[in-house]
Design a protein that fits this description.
The protein has 188 residues and is α/β, with parallel strands linked by helices. The chain contains 7 helices and 7 strands, in the order αββαββαβαββααα. The longest helix has 20 residues.
């Protein structure tokens, strides 16, 4: 049997940097900021997290929506300094790191947010697991949409075109013609 060589879009993820999913200017607060103020800022800016940074801009902790509902809502006074309830020490990732490493670390440590830092350890942005997975599976999601959107005669033509393109890629991926045919039969 021929050796299988993955198609280009399947390997592209391994050459992309975490900066492709880094959200610039995440919400930051000082360690002494009262919890009530942190929650209000998260609400007002529609942020899913607030990164606690020291005077040099280095992340020392994080407060997420999950923290707000599990720890702050009923267990902390609004005047409590966020440093007393934040999650820390913090796992960070360098801005020069590959995206797949960021996704792997967030999954390994069950994190939805990971601060992205520069060489000096200062916060430059926030990586979000969902954003990373969307990038990683973007082509797959596009394929699913193209192969299932049969609302009109035109979309049926688009589905057939997408199936032909997919068949060509699968053949390039060294799948046998019967395997490709079986796959396309399942899709239909």
């Amino acid at each position: 049997m021929a050796e299988k060589t993955p198609v280009r879009w399947q390997t592209a993820l391994f050459s992309r940097l975490v900066t492709e999913i880094t959200r610039a200017a995440p919400l930051t607060v000082a360690p002494a900021t009262p919890c009530g103020v942190v929650v209000a800022r998260m609400r007002d800016s529609a942020a899913t997290s607030a990164t606690v940074v020291d005077a040099e801009g280095r992340p020392v902790g994080i407060v997420t929506e999950r923290d707000v509902t599990r720890r702050l809502a009923f267990q902390a006074d609004p005047d409590t300094p966020v440093a007393r309830v934040m999650t820390g020490p913090l796992r960070t990732i360098p801005e020069t790191e590959y995206l797949f490493h960021a996704i792997a670390r967030m999954r390994h440590y069950d994190l939805r947010h990971m601060p992205v830092v520069d060489r000096e350890g200062r916060l430059v942005g926030m990586a979000n697991l969902v954003d990373g997975l969307v990038v990683a599976a973007g082509r797959l999601m596009e394929r699913i949409h193209l192969l299932t959107d049969a609302g009109t005669v035109e979309s049926l033509r688009d589905i057939k075109t997408a199936q032909a393109q997919l068949a060509a890629e699968l053949l390039e991926d060294s799948l046998s013609a019967p395997e490709v045919l079986a796959f396309l039969t399942r899709v239909n």
